[in-house]
Amino acid sequence: MNFKAIVTLFFLTILTSVSFSREVISFNQDWAFKKGPFTTDLLQYGNVFSGTWQSIAVPHTWNSKDMQVRNDRFTSNEKFYVGDAYYRKTFIPESSWNGKRIFIKFEGVNTNTEVYINNSPLPAKKEKGNVVYDASAINGNYQIVGRHQGGYSAFVLELTNLLKFGVENEILVKVNNEATPQVIPVNHTLFPMYGGIYRPVELIVTDKINIAVSDYASSGVYISQKDVNKKSASINLKVKLENKNHDARDLQVVSTIFEQNGAVKAKNIKKYRLLPQGRQEVMQDFNLTNPHLWQGLEDPYLYKVVTQLVDGNTVLDEVIQPLGLRKFELRTGEGFFLNDIKYPMYGVTRHQDRWGKGSALSNADHDEDLAIIKEIGATTIRLAHYQQSAYFYEKCDSIGFIVWAEIPFVNRVTTLEEANAKQQLTELIRQNYNHPSIYTWGLHNEVYTPNAYTIELTTKLNDLAKTEDRYRYTVQVSGYNVINHAVNNNADIQGINHYFGWYNGVIRDVDKWADQISKDFKDYKIIFSEYGAEANPSHQQEVVGDVGNQWANPAFFPEEFSTKFHEIHWGTIKRHPIFLASYLWNTFDFATPITALNVEPRNYKGLVTFDRKLKKDPFYWYKANWSKEPVLYLTQRRVIERVNEITPVTVYSNLGKPTLLVNGVEEKNFVIGETDVHYIFQNVKLKEGDNIIQVKASRKGQQFEDKITWHYLKDNPKAISKDGPKSNKNEHIGL
């Protein structure tokens, strides 16, 4: 029996009659879609709504292809479609809903949205799988329901007084994904804003007395926890209520905390007289003894909090939320502590888009990403650079990842985005307040001039975050390696993005920098929030230098440089406790549709390819260092064509010293590299032709092996062995 069934059965035993008034109805199927550009002639505008529309289901984006491939058909800088598009869907509100409240919830629409309703929809017919509308029947009955600005947070609009019951109604959604200076992100530079209704849509039907649905699309129930330890925990619930009847009602607010097996951990019943005006708040307190703590990946134990509005023997409304009891603490110079136990912060970042789908993802897509992140051994995820799907946060709760959540205030300041930045931060916090996995709220990433404005806005965002949630940290991020940059240190944590050897300097500069900030900023909370280098698996180079090829024309991003970069950077991070956490950039390749750096509009800094099919060499570097799973891995497995007779062979092994065989002969000359899993066998001699490189190791009687083949020729025309550039004075541009 699932948990919902257990909860329902429990209440059936204590109430003589149960009537759950809240219905949540999927609204994803049978949409019609039409993309612009559309006419600006008002006399012809009615034709927008006529003619053939494509039949689609949501999640959906119109940019799944044109933002991911080079397209020279467009002459503008943005070589993909941005502009208006429309979605429409007819439905018949059930007569039984009359007298109730009806809401529509969009989990994500990119970027600016207008929602309309028409009680007399146009006549339509199906032709070859599409929908054709009759222009002659346009009646102008569309009414505005509401608007929303921002492409990554959910929003809710109420339809109650706009519907006709028992007959067809039509929802019309106008979407525009053009970058504007008032809405963050203000450009497509760091990542694409895939246009469309790209996350699920649902209808929510409640009683006239209900837990608030439209409080920034939150659950309406806010669970705060403090003084959490193995012996006790203090819990406070804030429940937001509404009454759309004409008179006050005497109710009970019943909140119950359930164990995973369905047993009741605690219960609070509060009598409340709910007035018919305004939104009201009810507070409920719990003092739990001997709580089962949420201990990250080791034990992600979740209670369930069930909050009900009860009128006599009738349950008018019900909301279920997760509760993971935990205490987060960042101790300067020591690290991250979870429930007073030092916890490793092995961090990755995640962009949500993927090849062929853009950001219109299924739950299976999210599950695959989470499985890959778990495989590498990561313990924490920076969800960059925007609010991600509700499902993803829920899974992080249940798996046990520690999460950094942030808003898309990135890359550029326009001085016109303040109101929208505040709106999106409020949405981020209220919609995700109850997720135990989240430990910090991200305020911005790499925004600078004008400094005075940016400092003031960052301070306002920090104050807003603390007003909304005083129990979590805040973090801001700089792309300069200077901790005390003018814009920095207006949040609890300072994140630093830096790419030594990629955007400036040489790779080993990271050591000197880490030594210096450890000395000069020992009392600061610092996170190494981004570091990485491009790695295109089709680009291979036998020997690389200490500087990357980011400005090469044509683009040349050998996987081997990225491998060297990550080996050195992680070794430095591991040795410097000044970094309370670190986040490699990025787990997956992602689209960068307007950059001119690549042949394809793509960022290749991912450890996994855009289609999730290939894990690059650096992936196994981190897996060997982080994961408890056995790892035995030979690097340079795609550098098949070789020109150097004498060469090193690198092995990643968390199984202890491996045995290396080259053409059946054991090689014994090795050194330990950046960490204790890094074995470098030096001066290995290859023979002409094919060479079998084989490594073996064992653990607890189980044998492990990896094998690759290299092809060596003295004058191999297919081999690339040249060093990269010797220096680089370019600054980090945010890509």
Number of strands: 46
Low-confidence stretches: 1-18, 73-77
How much is the average pLDDT?
Answer: 92
Radius of gyration: 28 Å
- Strands ordered across the widest β-sheet: 8-9-3-2-4-12-7-10
Distance between the termini: 48 Å
Strand content: 35-45%
Give the % helix. Answer: 10-25%
Q: Kindly name the structural category.
A: alpha+beta
What's the number of helices? 8
Shape: globular
Largest sheet: 8 strands, antiparallel
Give a written overview of the molecule.
The protein is of the alpha+beta class and 735 residues long. Helix content is 15%, strand content 36%. It has eight helices and 46 strands. The protein has an eight-stranded antiparallel beta sheet with strand order 8-9-3-2-4-12-7-10, with no helix packed on it. Strand 33, helix 6 (509-520) and strand 34 (526-530) form a beta-alpha-beta unit. Helix 2 packs parallel to helix 3 (390-399) and helix 4 runs parallel beside helix 5. The longest helix is centred in the middle third of the chain and has 18 residues, at 451-468. The radius of gyration is 28 Å and the shape is globular. The two termini are 48 Å apart.
